[in-house]
Amino acid sequence: MSKKESAWTRFAAWVNGEHEPAESRLFSMGMGPRKERRPEITLPKREEKQRLHGFLSWYPVASAVIGVILVGILLATVLAMPSFGQVENPTNNEVPAHYLQHTREETGASNAVAGMILNYRGFDTFGESCVLFLAVSCVFILLLRDENNTSQKDLEQAQRREQRRKRRQDVILQEAARLLSPFILLFGAYMLLGGHHSPGGGFSGGAVLGGALILYASAFGQDAIRRFFNEKVYNTVRVIGLMLYAVLFGYYIFTGANGLENHIPLDYGGLILPIDIAVGLVVACTMYGFYAMFTRGEL
Amino acid sequence: MDLIQRILENRFSVTAVILFGIGFANLMLQYNLVKKVVGFNIMDSAVFLLLASQGYIEGAMPPIVAEGAVEATAYINPIPSGLVLTGIVVSVSVSAFSLALIQRIYHKYGTVDLRELVMRTEKEED
User: Fold this and answer.
1) Can you tell me whether residue A111 is helix, strand or coil?
2) pTM across the whole model
3) The domain at B2-58+75-125 falls in which architecture?
4) Which 73-102 residues of chain A touch chain B by CB within 8 A?
5) Ranges of each domain in chain A
6) Average pLDDT, chain A
7) Which of A262, A278, A254 is nearest to A106 (CA)?
8) Long-range contacts of B1-5 (CB under 8 A, 24+ apart)
9) In a 10 Å sphere around its CB, with 0-12 CB exposed, 13-18 middle and 19+ buried, how is residue A208 labelled?
10) Which residue ranges make up each domain of chain B?
11) Fewer C-beta within 10 Å: chain A N or C terminus?
């Protein structure tokens, strides 16, 4: 027991960067003293430079030729494809027919697109949510502004900009935001909750919700939105959205694969409605995260 | 005459290919990194246009099915719409990530022009 605990504490220390494993050479990223020995890069450096300049000079010609050839091939392909909008095209085969005919009794959604992406192909959409989650995490890693990666001058400049913005507040923007953001939030919630029987759903509803947050933040400043939507709430909401999706869809797949009865009623969109909400949370957080990172570098 | 007929029958696909070419040329020939990202997004839009046009059926309804027995050919094909949704999500993520990278590059080197970047990295090596 104690051994396991110590292994766990060592692992936690390693994750936090306080402990170096025995083979630190494998995990460290070139933190040691720089090696003096320079293998034969130094000798043909001039040639290397010339090769680079040569590449940059013929590169436009080559890429233009490649582009023209590519477009030619694609045009030939496209002109050989079946014509636009005909019922007997090979894309309209038995798969969409099955989706359209059975989506009501199998998924509980009358919107066939929502039924398809969130139920028949739910793992695909789960991957999409993970892509969004990872993208916003990567943008955080690259752009989050703190004492470690920003010079003092830049920090002071950002503070001055913020103060100047506070002194000169935009009345039109603020009044418009005060008037509009409740309705935009309401419309986003409507799209989010009605995705199973009307156009809308998690992605579009979440984008509208994120737009409302962005409008509010740009009108009243980051401090106003931080009162109810700070970094902790933000991270909690987006993790909960992803986890909710994973747990719900895992339960659904598990019961279905084992022939068990799942206790999800089909009356109000079945599985689609809670998954739509989960996706909407993730998308709204992603949109707002992109805005906050690109404008101010902090949440 | 026959060629014009084919082009008119596949007008959306042909437009998509032309857009793809414009985006590809932008991606390859622009030296400004932000313009490269714009070209990439034009390419994405071309792919979405091609996919979405493949699912359309002349005179059919949007795929929100009514109650009761359903004639599948009365609605458009729902699958390309779902695929376009996937593509849009990936496109947004890739654009945001590359723009963040470009912002870091600008902070470090003070330029987003590819030729100047090459020159500055060379100067740094010397």
Assistant:
1) strand
2) 0.82
3) Orthogonal Bundle (1.10)
4) 74-75, 78-79, 81, 83-87, 89, 91-92, 95-97, 99-101
5) 112-295
6) 84
7) A262
8) B3/A79
9) buried
10) 2-58+75-125
11) N
